[in-house]
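Need YdhG-like domain-containing protein's 3D structure for a figure. Predict it.
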Amino acid sequence: MEEVYRSLAGLEEEKREKMQGLFEWIHKEFPQLEPIIKWNQPMFTDHGTYIIGFSFSRNHVSVSPEVKPMRTFADKIAEAGYDQTKNIFRIKWHQPIDHALLREMIATNINEKKEYSKFWRTPE
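Structure prediction for YdhG-like domain-containing protein:
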Protein backbone atom coordinates (compact mmCIF):
# COMPACT_ATOMS: atom_id res chain seq x y z
CA MET A 1 0.00 0.00 0.00
CA GLU A 2 2.96 2.32 0.51
CA GLU A 3 3.44 2.91 -3.21
CA VAL A 4 -0.24 3.77 -3.59
CA TYR A 5 -0.09 6.12 -0.61
CA ARG A 6 2.91 7.89 -2.15
CA SER A 7 0.75 8.63 -5.21
CA LEU A 8 -1.37 10.84 -2.95
CA ALA A 9 1.53 13.08 -1.93
CA GLY A 10 0.59 15.90 -4.31
CA LEU A 11 -2.97 16.19 -3.01
CA GLU A 12 -4.14 18.72 -0.45
CA GLU A 13 -4.40 17.22 3.03
CA GLU A 14 -8.21 16.84 3.06
CA LYS A 15 -8.22 15.17 -0.37
CA ARG A 16 -5.26 12.96 0.54
CA GLU A 17 -7.02 11.79 3.72
CA LYS A 18 -10.22 11.05 1.79
CA MET A 19 -8.36 8.92 -0.75
CA GLN A 20 -6.20 7.20 1.84
CA GLY A 21 -9.39 6.28 3.70
CA LEU A 22 -10.91 4.92 0.49
CA PHE A 23 -7.81 2.87 -0.34
CA GLU A 24 -7.68 1.47 3.21
CA TRP A 25 -11.37 0.55 2.91
CA ILE A 26 -10.76 -1.24 -0.43
CA HIS A 27 -7.79 -3.11 1.08
CA LYS A 28 -9.90 -4.18 4.09
CA GLU A 29 -12.94 -5.21 2.00
CA PHE A 30 -10.91 -6.94 -0.71
CA PRO A 31 -7.58 -8.02 0.82
CA GLN A 32 -6.79 -10.20 -2.21
CA LEU A 33 -6.47 -7.13 -4.44
CA GLU A 34 -2.99 -5.88 -5.20
CA PRO A 35 -2.53 -2.10 -4.96
CA ILE A 36 -0.21 -0.91 -7.73
CA ILE A 37 0.77 2.18 -9.67
CA LYS A 38 0.62 2.08 -13.47
CA TRP A 39 0.61 5.07 -15.79
CA ASN A 40 1.08 7.26 -12.70
CA GLN A 41 -2.31 6.15 -11.35
CA PRO A 42 -3.18 4.06 -8.31
CA MET A 43 -5.16 0.97 -9.16
CA PHE A 44 -6.09 -2.41 -7.79
CA THR A 45 -5.61 -5.71 -9.61
CA ASP A 46 -6.59 -9.31 -8.98
CA HIS A 47 -4.31 -12.11 -10.27
CA GLY A 48 -2.74 -9.58 -12.65
CA THR A 49 -6.00 -8.31 -14.14
CA TYR A 50 -7.29 -4.77 -13.73
CA ILE A 51 -10.19 -4.26 -11.32
CA ILE A 52 -10.41 -0.51 -10.62
CA GLY A 53 -8.24 2.60 -10.92
CA PHE A 54 -8.24 6.22 -9.84
CA SER A 55 -6.88 9.54 -11.04
CA PHE A 56 -7.03 12.94 -9.41
CA SER A 57 -7.80 16.44 -10.56
CA ARG A 58 -8.41 19.74 -8.85
CA ASN A 59 -12.18 19.23 -8.64
CA HIS A 60 -12.70 15.49 -8.44
CA VAL A 61 -11.35 11.96 -8.37
CA SER A 62 -12.00 9.90 -11.49
CA VAL A 63 -12.91 6.27 -10.92
CA SER A 64 -12.34 3.81 -13.75
CA PRO A 65 -13.77 0.29 -13.48
CA GLU A 66 -13.59 -0.30 -17.30
CA VAL A 67 -16.37 0.18 -19.86
CA LYS A 68 -18.47 -2.94 -19.15
CA PRO A 69 -19.02 -2.11 -15.46
CA MET A 70 -19.72 1.51 -16.42
CA ARG A 71 -22.61 0.28 -18.55
CA THR A 72 -23.79 -2.19 -15.89
CA PHE A 73 -23.78 0.41 -13.11
CA ALA A 74 -24.71 3.54 -15.11
CA ASP A 75 -28.05 4.01 -13.33
CA LYS A 76 -26.57 3.50 -9.86
CA ILE A 77 -23.73 5.91 -10.66
CA ALA A 78 -26.29 8.52 -11.72
CA GLU A 79 -28.38 7.84 -8.58
CA ALA A 80 -25.27 8.49 -6.48
CA GLY A 81 -25.03 11.92 -8.13
CA TYR A 82 -21.76 11.29 -9.93
CA ASP A 83 -20.93 12.61 -13.40
CA GLN A 84 -19.98 9.86 -15.84
CA THR A 85 -18.60 9.15 -19.28
CA LYS A 86 -18.22 5.88 -21.15
CA ASN A 87 -15.01 5.03 -19.26
CA ILE A 88 -15.10 6.79 -15.89
CA PHE A 89 -17.22 8.41 -13.25
CA ARG A 90 -16.23 11.44 -11.21
CA ILE A 91 -16.63 11.94 -7.50
CA LYS A 92 -16.32 15.63 -6.71
CA TRP A 93 -14.21 16.25 -3.66
CA HIS A 94 -17.18 17.60 -1.69
CA GLN A 95 -19.35 14.54 -2.50
CA PRO A 96 -19.52 11.52 -0.22
CA ILE A 97 -18.11 8.24 -1.47
CA ASP A 98 -20.81 5.64 -2.10
CA HIS A 99 -19.06 2.63 -0.59
CA ALA A 100 -21.97 0.29 -1.33
CA LEU A 101 -21.73 1.15 -5.03
CA LEU A 102 -17.96 0.65 -5.06
CA ARG A 103 -18.27 -2.63 -3.14
CA GLU A 104 -20.77 -3.98 -5.67
CA MET A 105 -18.75 -2.71 -8.63
CA ILE A 106 -15.45 -4.16 -7.39
CA ALA A 107 -17.04 -7.49 -6.41
CA THR A 108 -18.69 -7.75 -9.83
CA ASN A 109 -15.40 -7.02 -11.60
CA ILE A 110 -13.58 -9.63 -9.50
CA ASN A 111 -16.24 -12.23 -10.23
CA GLU A 112 -16.48 -11.49 -13.95
CA LYS A 113 -12.70 -11.53 -14.38
CA LYS A 114 -11.87 -14.52 -12.16
CA GLU A 115 -10.90 -16.64 -15.18
CA TYR A 116 -9.47 -13.69 -17.11
CA SER A 117 -5.75 -13.72 -17.87
CA LYS A 118 -5.22 -10.33 -19.54
CA PHE A 119 -4.84 -6.97 -17.82
CA TRP A 120 -7.71 -5.26 -19.67
CA ARG A 121 -10.97 -6.68 -20.96
CA THR A 122 -11.15 -7.27 -24.68
CA PRO A 123 -13.10 -4.35 -26.23
CA GLU A 124 -16.64 -5.31 -27.11
